[in-house]
């Protein structure tokens, strides 16, 4: 079985669930993750290791990780904002740590209560920790608000690229770019990822796009054309920008997988089974809006998918 051409990293169980008010019961989370895995998803960000008083939706993070790591072939990721969170995530057995580092000075203080410079040092501390405790665990520094910020407005591109390079120098294995508030457009995506590859080469990481203004898929395709091969997405478009109520936030996994597969770009994910994985999501969050043009319209009659990893 050939390897997929692109890696779709599902972030719904973390980015999606911590963006909604309701708390999904743990057993529903596990059913959802199992359904994603059964569809062929091979990387899932399953939790965020933060204080339960701040995000009660993530109070069961360790339990979710311990279940997810039993699924064969699955890379289990968790978001950690600091060294303490990284300690807990490593103890639970994660395969990959993601640290949010905001390119916007204003957003950094609002989101993690640290300056950008302090977050680079946090990346360094987490890198040292995983090197000592679990050197096989990967570390990604995701540069959030890379394309603009609702608090600050424009974010200088030079600062975005410099911050990504600083994170790599601090010990991160890769650094990707996130359109946290849905400001990006395809021309900007091409330009910034081109600069990112020029600066850090093969350590350039995932594209994390939002569909807040309807440009999510276009921005993913622009990133693909610049050489990006890992894309974050959320089943049903769950979660996303809290500053745009009612808008679809994260790129919809079902639509992104269909786009690539329809183009002949293998994802390793069975589109029909992926759509079926919406059932445990909807059951666990009754009444929560879910999005997706492909699930609504159905697959074209002439669509034949080959080689899905299920």
Task: Provide a descriptive summary of the structure in words.
- This protein is an alpha/beta fold.
- 41% of the residues lie in helices and 14% in strands.
- The chain is built from 13 helices and eight strands.
- It has an eight-stranded parallel beta sheet.
- The chain is globular.
- The termini are close together.
- The model has no long low-confidence stretch (mean pLDDT 94).
The assembly state of the depicted protein chains is: single chain
SSE topology string: EHHEHEHEHHEHEHEHEHHHH
Mean pLDDT: 94
Q: Unreliable stretches, pLDDT < 50, 5 or more residues?
A: none
Span from first to last CA? 11 Å
Numbering strands along the chain, what is their spatial order in the largest sheet?
Answer: 1-8-7-6-5-4-3-2
Specify the helix fraction band.
40-55%
**Rounded Rg:** 18 Å
Biggest sheet descriptor:
8 strands, parallel
Assess the beta-strand content as a share of residues.
5-15%
Coarse shape: globular
Count up the helices.
13
Please give the number of β-strands.
8
| Structural class based on helices, strands and sheet pairing | alpha/beta
Short description:
The protein is of the alpha/beta class and 310 residues long. It has 13 helices and eight strands.
Based on the model shown, name its key terms.
single chain, 310 residues, alpha/beta, 8 strands, 14% strand
């Amino acid at each position: 079985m050939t390897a997929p051409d692109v890696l779709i990293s599902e972030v719904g169980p973390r980015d999606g669930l911590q963006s909604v008010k309701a708390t999904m019961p743990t057993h529903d989370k596990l059913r959802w993750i199992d359904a994603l895995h059964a569809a062929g998803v091979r990387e899932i960000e399953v939790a965020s290791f933060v204080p339960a008083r701040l995000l009660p939706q993530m109070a069961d993070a360790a339990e979710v990780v311990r279940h997810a790591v039993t699924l064969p072939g699955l890379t289990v990721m968790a978001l950690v904002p600091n060294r303490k969170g990284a300690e807990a995530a490593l103890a639970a057995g994660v395969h990959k740590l993601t640290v949010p580092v905001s390119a916007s000075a204003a957003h950094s203080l609002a989101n993690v209560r640290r300056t950008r410079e302090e977050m680079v040092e946090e990346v360094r501390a987490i890198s040292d920790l995983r090197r000592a405790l679990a050197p096989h665990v990967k570390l990604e520094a995701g540069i959030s608000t890379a394309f603009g910020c609702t608090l600050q407005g424009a974010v200088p591109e030079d600062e975005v690229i410099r911050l990504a390079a600083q994170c790599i120098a601090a010990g991160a294995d890769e650094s990707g770019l996130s359109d946290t508030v849905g400001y990006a457009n395809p021309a900007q995506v091409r330009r910034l990822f081109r600069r990112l590859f020029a600066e850090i080469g093969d350590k350039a990481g995932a594209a994390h796009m939002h569909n807040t203004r309807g440009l999510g898929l276009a921005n993913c395709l622009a990133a693909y054309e610049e050489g990006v091969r890992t894309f974050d997405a959320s089943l049903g478009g769950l979660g996303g920008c809290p500053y745009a109520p009612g808008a679809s936030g994260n790129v919809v996994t079902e639509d992104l997988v269909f786009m690539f597969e329809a183009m002949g770009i293998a994802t390793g994910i069975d589109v029909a089974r992926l759509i079926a994985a919406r059932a445990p999501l909807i059951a666990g969050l009754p009444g929560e809006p879910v999005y997706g043009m492909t699930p609504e319209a159905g697959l074209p009659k002439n669509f034949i998918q080959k080689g899905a990893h299920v």
